[in-house]
């Protein structure tokens, strides 16, 4: 009971801040049921004058609510399938810039995590130079066998885990009420969204996992001459501390500095696109937060990425799917693009392949009437996912993250080279992967994997047969005896359901009364 009241108070505060900052103006009333429209009108009574518009309102509200809500907004920016393309673009503008915490607190965290005094670890340790919702970065120097080395030290905010845990509990409670009282919203799966956010944040708050991501990406790209990543210092890395080599370079959005350094903007734009596609299609592991603040160019003209808290993965099926649809659009083979969707199981088989190909043609043909530099691959994928939703294609989280990252990557590349030809730039990477994995060598490898799978299955057959026999015996016993619930169990279930309904109703009334009191109390 006390926990429910605490969650209620936190959600009431969040609702008030969102209403006060004007964020509720972004909601389309026509998409809501009548009761929810009335609630929206009442909540907007307390809207602050001059709250701005678009992303400014939501950004101000989420920043005021704290790190958990900032991270929630950034998470929703990667899910245009949930919030819509326009809202996702607005949320992309939400900056993860928070006030830094004092250096003394960072020092205590570092010493606790690494088990040594700071002066025994670092020759120098600066004031914070950048701060986000989960951690902040300091510049430092360490002594190595090869001499002094400048490093970046990322330190988790004190108390951030506890704060996120509290806010996520309140978000889950609100999501459950939303699902119960707004049935039409269940298709958005609000509880699953909060659970996905919790998983994402738990990974981001363990900096050992970020170090592992850096290491894996470095291993995948060790032979790429135009791309590199920093090197983690494993001896100086723990759950709350990440130490990596310092990157000296020019941010990719600093066009004037790039030109002043005599770097080739056209070649750099091509590197951005081809590097991303190599990571996604060749390796199945890509940086999923490639905005300009996380991308640099060094003095040798190489692309350098930082901040590996959000990474994406694609299995072999998804990589083949991506490569084939891109090549299909390049070659205008829309029937092949349609068949790839059906072969991957993304579109239910009761639909017509030919009808789906016709819908895809409606996307592909207009782009071939335009100049190459006018064609947006990211927009094409967005339209493709919109069309596939008409054919009951289930949402694939990994493909949505890929599509959203491609939007950002394409924007970065076109800022460097406004006349970038996306198709000519992408084709070598896509074709090389197709020839390697779908050609003779790839088919021999697939056949070898199939034979190994069959051999493994054959050795497991006796044990599988024994387990199946036991399971069938249990089903026979269950069919003969049935499942019985005694009277006390049925009564207890009824009482529990009744209590849940009463508390949910009371919670909604308290929220409504709180907003009305706040509204008419002079806010």
Automatic annotation (TrEMBL):
Biological process terms from the Gene Ontology for this record are: ubiquinone biosynthetic process
* CDD domains recorded: UbiB (cd13972)
**Domain Protein kinase: where?**
123-440
Q: What pathway is it annotated to?
A: Cofactor biosynthesis; ubiquinone biosynthesis [regulation]
- Superkingdom is Bacteria
Q: Which UniProt keywords apply?
A: ATP-binding, Cell inner membrane, Cell membrane, Kinase, Membrane, Nucleotide-binding, Transferase, Transmembrane, Transmembrane helix, Ubiquinone biosynthesis
Q: Recorded GO terms, molecular function? A: ATP binding; protein kinase activity
Provide the family line.
Belongs to the protein kinase superfamily. ADCK protein kinase family.
- Protein name listed in UniProt: 2-polyprenylphenol 6-hydroxylase
The protein's gene is named: ubiB
């Amino acid at each position: 009971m006390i926990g429910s009241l605490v969650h209620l108070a936190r959600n009431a505060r969040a609702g008030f801040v969102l209403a006060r900052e004007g964020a509720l103006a972004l909601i389309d009333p026509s998409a809501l049921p009548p009761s929810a429209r009335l609630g929206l009108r009442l909540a907007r009574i307390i809207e602050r004058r001059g709250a701005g518009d678009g992303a400014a309102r939501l950004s101000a509200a989420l920043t005021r609510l704290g790190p958990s809500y900032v991270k929630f907004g950034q998470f929703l920016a990667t899910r245009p399938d949930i919030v819509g393309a326009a809202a996702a673009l607005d949320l992309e503008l939400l900056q993860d810039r928070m006030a830094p915490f004092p250096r003394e607190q960072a020092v205590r965290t570092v010493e606790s995590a690494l088990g040594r005094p700071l002066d025994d670890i670092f020759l120098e340790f600066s004031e914070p130079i950048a701060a986000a919702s989960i951690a902040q970065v300091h510049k430092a120097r360490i002594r190595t066998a090869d001499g002094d080395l400048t490093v970046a030290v990322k330190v988790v905010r004190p108390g951030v885990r506890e704060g996120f845990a509290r806010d996520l509990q309140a978000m889950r409670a609100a999501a459950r009420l939303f699902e119960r009282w707004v049935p039409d919203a269940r298709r958005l799966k609000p509880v699953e969204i909060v659970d996905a956010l919790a998983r994402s944040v738990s990974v981001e708050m363990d900096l050992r996992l970020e170090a592992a991501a850096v290491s894996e990406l470095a291993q995948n790209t060790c032979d790429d001459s135009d791309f590199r990543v920093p090197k983690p210092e494993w001896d100086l890395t723990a759950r709350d501390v990440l130490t990596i080599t310092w990157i000296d370079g020019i941010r990719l959005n600093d066009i004037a500095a790039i030109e002043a350094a005599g770097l080739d903007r056209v070649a750099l734009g091509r590197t951005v696109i081809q590097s991303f596609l190599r990571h996604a299609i060749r390796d199945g592991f890509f940086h999923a937060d490639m905005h300009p603040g996380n991308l640099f160019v060094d003095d040798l003209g190489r692309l350098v990425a930082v901040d590996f808290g959000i990474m994406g993965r694609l299995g072999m099926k998804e990589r083949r799917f991506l490569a084939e649809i891109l090549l299909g659009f390049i070659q205008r083979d829309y029937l092949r693009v349609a068949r790839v969707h059906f072969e991957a199981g993304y579109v239910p088989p009761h639909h017509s392949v030919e009808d789906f190909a016709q819908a895809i043609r409606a996307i592909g043909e207009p782009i071939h009437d335009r100049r190459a530099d006018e064609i947006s691959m990211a927009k094409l994928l967005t339209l493709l996912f919109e069309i596939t939703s008409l054919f009951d294609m289930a949402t694939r989280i990994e493909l949505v993250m890929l599509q959203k990252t491609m939007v950002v990557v394409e924007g970065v590349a076109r800022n460097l080279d406004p006349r970038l030809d996306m198709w000519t730039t992408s084709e070598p990477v896509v074709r090389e992967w197709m020839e390697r994995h779908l050609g003779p060598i790839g088919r021999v490898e697939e056949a070898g994997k199939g034979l190994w799978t069959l051999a493994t299955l054959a050795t497991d057959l006796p044990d599988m047969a024994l387990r199946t026999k036991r399971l069938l015996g249990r089903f026979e016993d269950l069919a003969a005896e049935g499942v019985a619930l005694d009277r006390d169990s049925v009564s207890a279930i009824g009482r529990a359901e009744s209590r849940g309904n009463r508390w949910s109703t009371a919670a909604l009334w308290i929220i409504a009364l709180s907003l009305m009191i706040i509204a008419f109390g002079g806010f």
